[in-house]
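[Discussion] Sanity-checking designs against the backbone

I'm trying to build intuition for which residues belong where. Below is a structure token string of 274 positions. I'd appreciate it if someone posts a full sequence so I can compare it with mine line by line.
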């Protein structure tokens, strides 16, 4: 493992696999860590230079000095890491929050990625269009802060999962009890202040249109994903010029963990030759 030093903190990252192989960079979901990609690291390290990181506020990176997080800031960190590792045109794989980071990166650098794989792909939170001015007016952040003060990070994350499940009727996060428990444990390790900053980054993000973007993009959702999130995946695929969408059965939001073999096979087939 290693740490990238920045002016306002340090970002934990790890490189595995073939040193001179084609770069494959994984960005995890909200309140998780780079370990969420363990099935993919095991599969692709034999052939690729695999890079994982813990986004600031998460896992081994932990808290940083800035008072406010944003998807744009997380993308700045990705840019800094790629520059430090001298990586050009990687294949970028993003899960949930990580899919937002990948979309932001592609919008900034239309030729900066060889391909993108977006698991549990989401464009905004909540996954509906809310005018910018109204978003701040309807902000759930005061209620979230109150819940955090009473229930802590794990309890707040669990409440969020129950709320989503109540609207979808599905095991939204994951169909596997151990996977859900591990995700809750990861969230519980995050200090409440950092939890709120991560939520704020997700809530405030205004996604790019991606219209006409030529980066080959694969969107993968589980069949038990929230319907509005699936719709956002369709929007991504419709916007880019070379987009594909895959729906995997018996899987939820953490589709790469629920169906690792199928996810890995689809990713391997989709990645273009160097």
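Best answer:
Here's mine. Compare freely.
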């Amino acid at each position: 493992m290693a740490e990238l030093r920045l002016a306002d903190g340090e970002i934990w990252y790890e490189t595995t696999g073939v040193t001179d192989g084609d770069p494959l960079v994984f960005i995890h979901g909200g309140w998780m860590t780079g370990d969420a990609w363990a099935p993919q690291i095991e599969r692709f390290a034999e052939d690729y230079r695999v890079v994982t990181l813990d986004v600031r506020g998460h896992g081994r990176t932990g808290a940083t000095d800035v008072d406010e997080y944003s998807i744009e800031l997380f993308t700045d960190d990705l840019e800094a890491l790629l520059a430090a590792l001298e990586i050009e045109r990687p294949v970028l794989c993003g899960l949930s929050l990580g899919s937002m980071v990948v979309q932001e990166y592609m919008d900034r650098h239309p030729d900066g990625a060889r391909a993108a794989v977006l698991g549990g792909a989401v464009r905004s939170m909540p996954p509906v269009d809310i005018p910018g001015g109204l978003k701040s007016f309807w902000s759930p952040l005061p209620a979230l802060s109150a819940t955090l003060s009473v229930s802590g990070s794990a309890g707040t994350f669990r409440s969020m999962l129950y709320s989503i499940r109540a609207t979808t009727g599905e095991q939204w996060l994951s169909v596997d009890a151990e996977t859900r428990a591990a995700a809750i444990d990861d969230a519980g390790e995050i200090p409440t202040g950092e939890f709120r900053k991560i939520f704020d980054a997700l809530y405030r993000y205004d996604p790019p249109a991606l219209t006409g973007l030529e980066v080959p993009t694969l969107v993968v959702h589980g069949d038990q994903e929230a319907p509005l999130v699936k719709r956002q995946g369709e929007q991504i695929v419709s916007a880019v010029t070379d987009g594909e969408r895959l729906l995997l059965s018996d899987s939820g939001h953490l589709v790469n963990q629920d169906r690792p073999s199928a996810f890995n096979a689809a990713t391997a087939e989709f990645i273009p030759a160097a």
